[in-house]
C-alpha cells in the first residue's frame, strides 16, 4: 500500500514538473514571438488605436490607393483566430490569406519570406496566445479597377516573390548574418528604402538607394558617403536606431519615427549592432558619390532686417524670412541653429534640408513630427490642415517657407513648387499603373467588341 502511494506521489511530482517545464517552454516561445513581432513592427500598420493592439483598421497610403490593415488578433470572428500555423505561414511568406485570397504587398510578405520555420512558429504562438482577441471588423480595401481583382497578385508573385527561407553566408560573421536576416526579413528595410519599378516591385539592383513612401522619402542607406550613410560610424547608426536622432545629421520622422518608436529602440544591443554591421557592408549603387554629404550642407543666418518693425499686413521683401520667423524661429532659433542639446535640431547640417528630394522637408512642415523613445517624447506641431496645426499654411506659403529654408540652410539646388506641396499634402505621388491598367482593360474590351462585330459581319455574309 505504502509502495503504491509513493509511486503515485512520484508520478504526480513528475507530471507537475513536466507541466511546469512545458509552461516555461511555452512562455519562452511566446516571448520570442513577441520580440519578433516588435522587430517586424507589426503594430505600426495593424494598430489604429493603442487601446486595441493589432485590431487593424489603419489606412496605409500607397501609390495605387489606400490599403486597410486587417485585424490580426486571435479573434475567431474578425481576426486570425481560426488560422492554422500553415495558413499563418502562408500569409506571412506567400501573401495568401486562409480563405485563399491574395494580400497586397503593402503587407511585406516579400521580406517575411525570409523568416525561418522556428521564427514563424514563435510568431504564431505569440499571436494566438500572447495577444488579446479583439472582435471588431475592419473596413475593406477598395482599390480602383482592375487592381481590386486580388487574383492578379498571383501573377505578380510569380514574377517577384522569392523562394522562402534564409541561407547564411559562411564567409561572413555570425553578427553580419544576423543583421542581414533582420534587415532583409523581419525589419523589412528594403520595403521602404528600395525604389519600385513600373509594376510596384522592388528594384533589387538599386536596393536601399532611397524611395518615395507616401508623403515621405525613405533616404539612401547604402555606404554612399554623399547621399547614403557612408560617413556614419557603426555606433552612430546604432544610436540613431535606438533614439531616432543623431545630432548634426538626422532625425526620424514619418514612418521612420514609427519604426523607432515601436520597433528599433526595443531591440537588443546585439541586434542593433548586427543591423549596423550589415548595413555598412551594403554596396553603393548610386552615381552621387562626389560633393558635400547631405549632413554637412548649410550655414547659420537670418534675414530679420527684411521685415523688422513692419506691420504683419505690410508687404515685405522676403516673405520666406517672415514665415520662418513667425513659425519656426521660436524653436529652431533665429539663425536656424537649434538648441545646444539638440532637442530642437539645427536646420543646417540636417538631412531633411540637404536631400535632393524635398519631400521630407515639406512633409515635416505639413504633418509635424512625433516620436516616443526612452529619452522622452519629441513633438513638432504640424502646419497643415490638421485641427491641432499651429498655423494653417497654404501650399504657396509652405513652398515659400521651404525654399527659404533650403536656400538659407540646405541644398540650394532644390526648389519647391506649390504643386509639389499639394501632392505631398494629398499623400504623395500616385502611380500611373492604375490608369495604364484601366486603359489596358478598356483596350482589351474594345478589341473584343471589334472582333465580335467582325465575326457577326462575316456570319451575315
TrEMBL record:
InterPro entries named among the record's database cross-references: Cyt_c-like_dom, Cyt_c-like_dom_sf, Cytochrome_c-type_DH, Membr-bd_ADH_cyt_c
Residue ranges of the TM segments: 433-457
Predominant localisation class: membrane
Molecular function (Gene Ontology), one example: heme binding
Signal peptide span: 1-23
Residues involved in heme c 2 binding: 189, 192-193
Limits of the Cytochrome c domain: 28-131, 174-283, 315-409
Binding site for heme c 3: 328, 331-332
Name the UniProt record assigns to this protein: Cytochrome C
Amino acid at each position: 500500500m505504502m509502495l503504491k502511494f509513493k509511486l503515485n506521489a512520484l508520478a504526480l511530482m513528475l507530471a507537475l514538473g513536466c507541466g511546469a517545464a512545458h509552461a516555461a517552454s511555452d512562455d519562452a516561445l511566446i516571448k520570442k514571438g513577441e520580440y519578433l513581432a516588435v522587430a517586424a513592427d507589426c503594430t505600426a500598420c495593424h494598430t489604429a488605436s493603442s487601446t486595441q493592439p493589432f485590431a487593424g483598421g489603419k489606412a496605409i497610403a500607397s501609390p495605387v490607393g489606400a490599403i486597410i490593415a486587417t485585424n490580426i488578433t486571435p479573434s475567431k470572428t474578425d481576426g486570425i483566430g481560426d488560422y492554422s500555423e500553415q495558413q499563418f505561414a502562408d500569409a506571412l511568406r506567400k501573401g495568401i490569406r486562409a480563405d485563399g485570397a491574395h494580400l497586397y504587398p503593402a503587407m511585406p510578405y516579400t521580406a517575411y519570406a525570409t523568416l525561418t520555420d522556428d521564427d514563424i512558429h514563435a510568431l504564431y504562438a505569440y499571436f494566438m496566445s500572447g495577444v488579446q482577441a479583439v472582435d471588431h471588423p475592419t473596413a475593406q480595401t477598395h482599390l480602383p479597377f482592375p487592381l481590386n481583382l486580388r487574383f492578379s497578385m498571383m501573377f505578380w508573385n510569380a514574377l517577384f516573390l522569392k523562394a522562402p527561407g534564409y541561407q547564411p553566408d559562411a564567409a561572413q560573421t555570425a553578427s553580419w548574418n544576423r543583421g542581414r536576416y533582420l534587415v532583409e526579413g523581419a525589419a523589412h528595410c528594403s520595403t521602404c528604402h528600395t525604389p519600385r519599378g513600373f509594376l510596384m516591385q522592388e528594384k533589387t539592383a538599386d536596393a536601399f538607394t532611397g524611395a518615395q513612401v507616401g508623403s515621405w522619402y525613405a533616404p539612401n542607406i547604402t555606404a554612399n558617403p554623399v547621399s547614403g550613410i557612408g560617413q556614419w560610424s557603426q555606433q552612430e547608426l546604432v544610436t540613431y536606431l535606438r533614439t531616432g536622432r543623431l545630432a548634426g545629421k538626422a532625425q526620424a520622422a514619418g514612418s521612420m519615427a514609427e519604426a523607432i518608436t515601436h520597433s528599433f529602440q526595443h531591440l537588443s544591443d546585439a541586434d542593433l549592432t548586427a543591423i549596423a554591421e550589415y548595413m555598412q557592408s551594403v554596396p553603393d549603387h548610386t552615381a552621387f558619390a562626389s560633393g558635400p554629404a547631405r549632413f554637412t550642407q548649410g550655414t547659420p543666418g537670418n534675414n530679420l532686417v527684411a521685415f523688422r518693425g513692419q506691420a504683419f499686413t505690410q508687404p515685405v521683401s522676403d516673405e520666406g524670412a517672415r514665415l520662418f520667423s513667425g513659425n519656426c524661429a521660436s524653436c529652431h532659433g533665429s539663425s536656424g541653429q537649434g538648441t545646444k542639446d539638440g532637442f530642437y535640431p539645427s536646420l543646417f547640417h540636417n538631412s531633411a534640408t540637404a536631400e535632393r528630394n524635398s519631400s521630407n522637408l515639406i512633409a515635416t512642415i505639413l504633418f509635424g513630427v512625433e516620436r516616443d523613445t526612452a529619452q522622452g517624447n519629441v513633438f513638432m506641431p504640424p502646419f497643415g490642415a490638421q485641427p491641432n496645426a499651429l498655423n494653417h499654411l497654404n501650399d504657396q506659403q509652405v513652398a515659400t517657407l521651404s525654399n527659404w529654408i533650403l536656400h538659407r540652410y540646405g541644398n540650394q539646388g532644390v526648389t519647391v513648387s506649390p504643386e509639389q506641396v499639394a501632392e505631398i499634402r494629398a499623400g504623395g505621388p500616385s502611380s500611373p499603373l492604375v490608369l495604364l491598367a484601366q486603359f489596358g482593360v478598356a483596350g482589351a474590351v474594345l478589341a473584343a467588341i471589334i472582333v465580335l462585330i467582325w465575326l457577326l459581319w462575316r456570319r451575315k455574309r
